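sorry for the late reply, my laptop died twice this morning and i had to redo everyting from scratch. anyway the thing you sent over, i finally got around to it. pasting the sequence first so we're on the same page, its 706 residues, then the predicted structure underneath. double check i copied it right bc i was rushing
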Amino acid sequence: MDAGKNKSSSTRADTDISNDELLLLPCLFQHRDLVRYLDSSRTIDKKKLVSTLNHIHFAGGSVLFHLHDPQYGEDVLIRAYPEPCLKETITCRWSKDDSLQFESYQFQHLVIVDGLSVILAPVNLRSISKTSFSLDLPDSIYTLGKRQARRHKCRNIIAELNQSGFMAKGTLMDFSPLAFRVKVAPDPNSSFLWFNPEGQITIALYRNKEIIFSGLCRCIRETFNLSVKELVLSPANRQIARFKKKKYRNPRIRLTPSAYVTFTHPFFHKTTRLDIYNIAISGFSVRENADESVLVPGMIIPESNITFSGKLKIKCKTQVIYRRPEKKGYFRCGIAILDMDIAAYRQLSNIITNSIDTNVHISDDIDVDVLWEYFFNTGFIYPKKYELIQSNTAAFKETYKRLYQDKPEIAMHMTYQKNGRIYGHASMVKAYEGAWMFHHLAAIPVEKKHTGLPVLKQILHYLSGLNYLPSVKFNYLMFYFRPENRFPNYFFGDLVRDFKDPKRCSLDLFSYKSYTKQSPATKLPEGWLLRECAPTDVSELERFYNHYSGGLLLDILDLKQENSEEETLEKIYERHGLLRKWKAFSLIEGQKLKALLIVDQSNMGLNLSELLNNIKILICDQEGLPWDVLSASIDHLIGIYETNTIPIMVFPDTYLEDKGIAYEKKYLLWLADIQYGPEYLEYMRNKMKMKLRFFIKFLVKTYLKK
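ok and here's the structure:
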């Protein structure tokens, strides 16, 4: 260790007994300057030393001894294992066959390195044998070089260094929040002659081939060797920008009783527990004592457990974002949640949201009978709709029981409740492989107070963290609503119209019609063909859709459906006793694609308007597709369903009207690419403020008139 490199801090430098030395014991003792500073060092009493030795014995640990070879004048460091210690003497077992090698050496000091400081105690040998030796404990026991933070030994951590083309690889030897110590050799195509210790260097750390840290560092110490170097690297950044900066942060709360996080530290592989200071849906902060700090910005923790009240545990993957000093020797560390499964996310969301507003509940237990009553009272199930579902009420009830009581990972619901009565409700289901769909959003006043905006606000909080979780596969958000419905049109419709970029968010208008199968089914005219969709058909459809709409519908449908080793959405639904699948068919005249018919299947009632249990028809040639040909195609596919009457949704919406075919209503399909989520959320929040100001002005004017 280059002890003379910085004389002004020699005490600290000289106590820097490296992990390399501890791993390769016995070895030459290169820290003789330690002895020089003993008179000016702090002392501890003998009782403290005895307690430390007994704890080391209890933990199965070892201590070090500084020995002097009188023949060659060399000093060495060896390892030994202490027996239970009483007051004046200590007995230690040799490590392996060291007794034969060092029986002629002079015992100088007992050395205990705890990662934070070094205990140095002069000792006198009393007796020695082939298995053990005994020594007298001194009255003067010194502690030297207290560090700013404890250093921890590391095992099995691969370190890779990169500096402008210079590459080196090795292992992480020890770690503190202030510095890494690595032992590396240059890549076969590199040389340490290329390494500039004054420049920044990128280090990447891996455990079991999984990255646990990557960041810029400065070299603060190095050994002068061209084959293998030991480098001490200090992280250059005290804060990292993990996600794009948002104008509005998720609300942070302090829970009572407070939660805590536990994890196996990725560097030194010991269990760590820290109390959570405050928490949000996207992360939390903790406070660390400077002496015992173990967090460094950029460090990835593959598995953390957030524990509430000692029982509820939420598992997640996290990363340290910042480390800031506070008063009284503490540091505040911010930790971002990188990933968790949807069930864990719902639990965390419910705890945080319910702490902000006790009336809001996310995927909490719900009385399904109360929910049905709410659907009828809000007019969501109107007479015409009930006429369609009344013959299958048992199936509808069973589906909603699975969605709301079993709470599978493909569904989410939010309610605004007071004394067990529902005043607001929103729900989502996973509709396609990467797309979640709002399939109900409604609210009624409670005590003359509107609940729609509070529900929407909490939905925005929920979505603001969901889109960052890779395991949820939340790439797109979709929402069907009627054009005359002012509330969603104000928020969702205006967003599309104001953004003016259909590849970020888009609106497509469909005509909706209940279709009854013709009996017997009409044959397709000669020259017409209905077949499973082929890649060439998708290419033709894309040309039409991009010209007519330019939106996101085809991205969501993913008609090419490239193979993936991950569990498909269909299999996930099956696992929960539910149905969800879709398949595309091409209607062709000669060699020209006329329309694409998408057979969407789900349990009856998964969506009460059957928006996921119908045939969606995308028409490429409105003029060249007669209704009777399209009708015959529908008759050939409707047999897939259990009923003879199913909804059809036709795009473009003008087709049925142009052909003189009656339809019941129209639906706008709102689609959003969730990677632009922060921009959507900011827009929605601004819209809420505008609507709230408008509502207040309206009340003031009304009151003044009265």
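The CA atoms of residues 163 and 201 lie 5 Å apart.
thats about all i looked at so far, will dig more tmrw
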